[in-house]
């Protein structure tokens, strides 16, 4: 019984920690809501990957055509730009995300930021933590106009690589799909 109460207390603290952030009170008018700093995290990952330059296997699939490349060097700033561009700490999106935390084990939990309004392109950001470190990022983006609709699913695994899946739907045109997967050589992901 004590173990259940301890886990419940830990889960409650994780929820408060993940959703509260270190933000200045909302009435300040200048500071955006403090969500997970995806842009800052990706900048540090780009520096780490640029320094290590692990060999990678890059697979690009456009509709039904696929190409596989083995690369010694990769421009991580360019390859990961879409992740940095998916940061939800924009003044225009302030207060437009609900945050919830799911505890999946003693040292594992995920924090999910879900758009509560239609305006933000980033519809969902999920950060998965294991043993106190980020194990996975998942971003879902969507935008739509009268002529064009686009959706993207982004996955980032610090230890093994990333993938980007895009679907574009245009009026009077066949849907276009693009899937890019970059795996660290030997990761088998």
Structure report:
- The chain is 22% helix and 43% strand.
- The chain has 189 residues and is α+β, with helices and mostly antiparallel strands.
- It has one domain (2-184).
- It has a nine-stranded antiparallel sheet with strand order 2-1-9-8-7-6-5-4-3, with helices on one face.
- The termini are far apart.
- The model is unreliable at 1-33 (pLDDT under 50).
Q: What are the SSEs and their pairings?
A:
Blueprint: H1 2-20, H2 38-52, E1 56-62, E2 65-71, H3 76-79, H4 81-84, E3 97-105, E4 108-115, E5 122-130, E6 133-144, E7 148-157, E8 161-170, E9 176-184
Antiparallel strand pairs: 1-2, 1-9, 3-4, 4-5, 5-6, 6-7, 7-8, 8-9
What is the beta-strand fraction? Answer: 35-45%
H and E string:
HHEEHHEEEEEEE
Give, in spatial order, the strands making up the sheet with the most strands: 2-1-9-8-7-6-5-4-3
Secondary-structure-based class equals alpha+beta
Q: What's the end-to-end separation, in Å?
A: 39 Å
C-alpha Rg, in Å? 19 Å
Uncertain segments: 1-33
Number of helices: 4
Number of strands: 9
Summarize the structure.
22% of the residues lie in helices and 43% in strands. It is α+β, with helices and mostly antiparallel strands and 189 residues long. The N terminus is likely disordered.
Relevant terms:
189 residues; alpha+beta; 9-stranded antiparallel beta sheet; 22% helix; disordered N terminus
């Amino acid at each position: 019984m004590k173990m259940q109460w301890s886990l419940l207390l830990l889960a409650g603290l994780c929820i408060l920690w993940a959703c509260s952030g270190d933000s200045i009170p909302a009435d300040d008018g200048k500071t955006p809501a403090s969500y997970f700093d995806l842009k800052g995290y990706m900048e540090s990952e780009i520096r780490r990957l640029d320094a290590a330059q692990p060999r990678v296997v890059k697979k690009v699939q456009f509709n039904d055509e696929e190409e596989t490349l083995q690369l010694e060097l990769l421009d991580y700033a360019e390859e990961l730009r879409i992740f940095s561009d998916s940061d939800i700490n924009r003044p225009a999106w302030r207060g437009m995300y609900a945050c919830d935390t799911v505890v999946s084990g003693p040292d594992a939990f995920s924090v999910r930021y879900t758009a509560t309004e239609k305006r933000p392109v980033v519809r969902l950001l999920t950060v998965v933590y294991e043993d106190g470190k980020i194990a996975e990022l998942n971003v879902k983006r969507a935008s739509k106009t009268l002529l064009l609709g686009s959706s993207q699913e982004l996955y980032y695994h610090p230890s093994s690589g990333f993938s980007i899946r895009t679907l574009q739907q245009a009026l009077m045109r066949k849907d276009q799909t693009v899937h890019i997967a970059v795996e660290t050589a030997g990761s088998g992901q």
